[in-house]
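CORE FACILITY INTAKE
Project code: CF-77B
Contact: R.S. (postdoc)
Sample description: multi-component assembly, two entities in total
Requested service: structural model of the whole complex
Turnaround: standard
Below are the sequence entries exactly as provided by the requester. Do not edit them.
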Amino acid sequence: MSFEIIKRDTNIDFVGMRKYAYVLSAVLLLTGFLSLLVKGGPQYGIDFAGGFNVQVKFSQSVELDKIRMALDSPALTGLVVQDFGDAGDHEVLLRASFSEQTANQVREAVNTGLESAFPGVTHEIQRLEMVGPKVGADLREKALEAIFYAVLLIATYISGRFEQKWMVAGLMAAGLASVVYVLDFLNAPTSLSVIVATVAALVLCVVLRLKYALGAIVALIHDVMIPLGLFSLLNKDVDLTIIAALLTIVGYSLNDTIIIYDRIRENIRAKVSPSLDVVINKSVNQTMSRTLITAGTTFVAVFSLYVFGGGVIHDFALTMLVGVVAGTYSSVFVGAPILAFFKPRIDVDEHPAPATA
Amino acid sequence: MGSLRWRALLAAFVIFLALIHVLPSIPSVRNSSLGALLPSDEIGLGLDLKGGIHLTLGVDLDAALGNAITSIGQDLRLEAREKKIPVLRPRLLDSRRLEFTLLKQEQKTELDALLAARFGSMEIISTEDGGNGQLRYVLGATPEYVKYLQDLTMDQALKTIRNRIDQFGVAEPDIRKQQGNRIIVQLPGLDDPKRAINIIGRTAHLEFKLVDDAADVQAAVAGTVPAESELAYLQDKRGASEVKTPIVLKSEVVLTGEYITDANVQFDSYGQAYVGMNFNARGARIFEEVTGANIKKRLAIVLDGTVHSAPVIQDRIGGGRASITGQFTTEEAHDLAVVLRAGSLPAPVNILEERSVGPSLGQESIDKGMMAALIGGLMVVVFMSIYYRRAGLIAAFEIILDICLILAGLVAFGATLTLPGIAGIILTLGMAVDANVLIYERIREELRHGESVAAAINNGFSRATQTIVDSNVTTIIAAVILYQFGTGPVRGFAVTLTLGILASMFTAIFVSRIFFDSWLARRQPGTQPSI
């Protein structure tokens, strides 16, 4: 017979373990949240804050302190010098989160500074990025909007698809859209709108009893907050590619959650058991092989990207790695057990009068 | 069995189409005899892989509006004077409002009629008593006019920048208007960003003004500039250092760069480069008149506010030729000729964002990305074939097919491959097996429940398909939103991710089924599938 990761009669009590899972999640989220709070929000990269990045490759290894001294000029105030890429590459990243200089002035200042300080060493500016503050602010707004619309659309889709509540889901979407419209009208900052709208989405899910959407949104917030918190702890910059990674995690995590939900719905229809806890446990166990295999292969692929993909893609790959682990964990331990939250009404909800079919 | 044959044919056709699109991107195939038969489209590489420059430019629309309204003010004064309505001091209040004084209050009706008839782009905001029988007017540009002028300015700026880049000679530039006042310029493969920016961002506003020789330069520097004159600086390069000499010019512009038909690099008898210009007929006539009327006076050539030279006019100059000298290097003279030929920008342009990637870094990113994809893919393939045996081999084959389909999709839609795009492919490598895993696990389950082999395969596919579709829709939603809100490389990622999901759904649901059905058709009774 073929290989099996999970023995066929495995029956782990995931619903029973949910209290431990909630504690673990709470600790992880709180740590990240505290770090964010202490540091005053995410540390934005130049895409969102404005400033410049210059990636320089030297022909031989050069001490960072010497570079710092060489580049101590008014054109490059607030410069951070750090190693970049693999050790043998002799690459450094120069970055500053604020700059009144044009890209050409920065380029000039770096070139002249390095030429005079390291006469025998050639250097090459491999990459230079300069983002003005206005563009940075626009990109930040866009990124927040992107995350918000992703959550909105996905919540609508899940409610419609899983509970046939397209009308209710549509109402929720309209409600959220009007909340955002009003906030926009009042010139509220986009970050505030997103937070308010997300909270509103959660409240609406509870009020409208959209339990699948609630579970999915909670899992989703969970999976986005964990990498964000980790980045804050590691003092890493959040930039456009990180947002792309976060949105991919959103997709991946939901993918996982929905596969388990699909099975729960199927088992409820098949009347596997009158107890929702048993149904949830059984469904999670049934899909466990698939969950582990897919998470495993995805992890392996992204890990390969993390190790071999080079410095430019490093943080992107790291976000994905954390996201895959968090996403898999949250589908099993957060997204599925949260359905049990609505236990008292589950039978009424799931067995509508057959006449409507 | 007919259906199986048709499905196999369809799959083969799709694979054939994919190969046709992908093969030309492999250099050894493109240069072979086979390459001549294939379409010539290759995979477009994003700037982060190819190297090149991405610029976001902000056009200063307020400045353009201010200029337009200032000249409306001048026209207004001239037209009013012709109608014997004396009007004083038209002055710009801000970029949208113009202020002037009507000398005789009793002419208000006449002036209002003139304004209504000839200056529909402005509306009267207020009039107030200026004392001495004068009336102070404030006009504001109408919203329609503001909109019209902004659109016009953007179109002109876009056209000028496009002209300049065309003359600069960049392959496949991408120049695009964005929302608001922004223009995006992408120059792939270009590795001298400094020079490109100097060409693109230069306003290139060329003016000829007479030098006010009667004025006291020292007094002007101290702050006392005669009326109708202005202080400027003559730029003179001596070796590496630049010397700026103050000079007083008459404010009136005698000729502008808009009459230039051609500009090119020429060399004087010392081998020094300078820029020669030709004027069109109208410009030539004006130039001839001006030079004829001002012999022995100095004529300053002002480019973007800097005086490049101020030669003494020796004689009336006919034929419509002029030149700008100023110790240029050949490259500088060439770039100046380019901007003069392409015309001036209608408004100053600021660089809001610049991203440049050197070609060597791009190649390095491709190499590293390929390496990561190869190793990651290999590990996934090995795992799948051990875990699911023959069915795993099918999945492994499909992973390779997925990558082909993604790349073919990129070529077919003319989308570009970016570094995050490569990351998207690698992510797909991991996630692509998900659809296969869902189906295989389901078949295993059905077999365990004691279903017949054919029923297990059938149920496995049909039950898993719904789950696969449900779960992938969310990822596609995320990808579509990324595409909508993202820029450049992030968009590339969204496209590859979407293509990857579609490809993996096609291969897992459709192609796999062909393998399983053909196995079912050929199998000996009682054999179990290798899964």
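Facility notes:
- The CA atoms of residues 379 and 430 of chain B lie 10 Å apart.
- Chain B touches chain A through 79 residues (CB under 8 Å).
Invoice: internal transfer
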